[in-house]
Specification:
Blueprint: E1 4-5, H1 6-12, H2 18-26, E2 30-32, E3 35-36, E4 43-44, E5 50-52, E6 55-56, E7 64-69, H3 86-89, E8 98-99, E9 108-114, H4 117-123, E10 132-139, H5 144-152, E11 155-156, E12 159-160, E13 165-171, E14 175-182, H6 189-196, E15 201-209, E16 212-213, E17 222-224, H7 227-236
Parallel strand pairs: 9-15
Antiparallel strand pairs: 1-4, 2-3, 2-5, 5-6, 7-9, 7-17, 8-9, 10-14, 10-15, 11-12, 13-14, 15-16
Length: 242
């Protein structure tokens, strides 16, 4: 009989990403056949009853959405401060979806949401190097030397960032508009990179995720991914049936 790791089963059911599922298990939120399980190596079969916070999980068909996240919205499923979340925007979607990675509260732009735990896990893993392009309005006049530092990498929390791609779009009297493409996903990475070179971010938007763009969307709009887009995302991470 097929056995799978508990966190993978929870992720496949669209309850949470695999990493979040591991947190739920470790904190005692998960029961298997009526017993609380905290061991991450636990394997279950299709005949086992799995509950998260006393709610039985059921495997849903995978769905994939692209959202133009507005500023002032939390990248989360729920928020204990009762702020609007990205999942609230997609409230008409019947499946239990969650965001792939995150965008800060005051950052807008392209965000993926899904219930495919495997794909989420791979898209957010740095080894697959999925490129993301941001456009930032930053304080001060950015120089070529500043851009060179970003391209070669800056040290943040004792670790150097990977090489980036940069483009100076324009400068104003006391600010600059810069395009930055990275494939890492550390917390607040883009803001920290600009802070490191002395140009704090005033406004930030993620314009692309891999080959996906915001074309045709306004802040707050969303759409399901097309089948060929889903396949291409899977190919980016080596997760494809072809």
């Amino acid at each position: 009989m097929n056995e799978e790791r508990l966190q993978k089963v929870i992720a496949h059911a669209g309850v949470a990403s695999r990493r979040k599922a591991e947190e739920l298990i470790a904190k005692g939120h998960v029961k298997v056949n009526g017993e609380v399980v905290k061991e991450l190596g636990t394997k279950v079969t299709p005949n086992d009853e799995v509950k998260v916070d006393e709610v039985p999980i059921s495997k849903e068909a995978p769905v994939y959405y692209l959202l133009y996240k507005p500023r002032g919205v939390i990248t989360a499923v729920t928020d204990d401060k009762h702020r609007k979340t990205v999942v609230d925007i997609l409230e008409e979607v019947p499946e239990r979806i969650y965001p792939v990675g995150r965008l800060d509260y005051d950052t807008s732009g392209l965000l993926l949401l899904t219930n495919d735990g495997d794909l989420d896990n791979k898209l957010t893993h740095p080894k697959y190097e999925v490129e993301k392009t941001y456009v930032a309005k930053v304080k001060g006049i950015v120089t070529n030397d500043d851009l060179k530092h970003l391209r070669t990498g800056v040290v943040i929390e004792h670790r150097k960032t990977a090489k980036a791609k940069t483009k100076l779009i324009r400068t104003n009297k006391d600010s600059s508009i810069v395009q930055l493409t990275i494939h890492e996903g550390r917390n607040h990475q883009v803001k920290n990179m600009f802070e490191k070179i002395g140009h704090p971010v005033e406004k930030l938007s993620r314009e692309t995720y891999g080959f996906l763009t915001l074309k045709g969307l306004q802040p707050g709009d969303y759409r399901p991914l097309k089948p060929h887009e889903v396949e291409e995302l899977k190919e980016l991470t080596g997760k494809t049936n072809r």
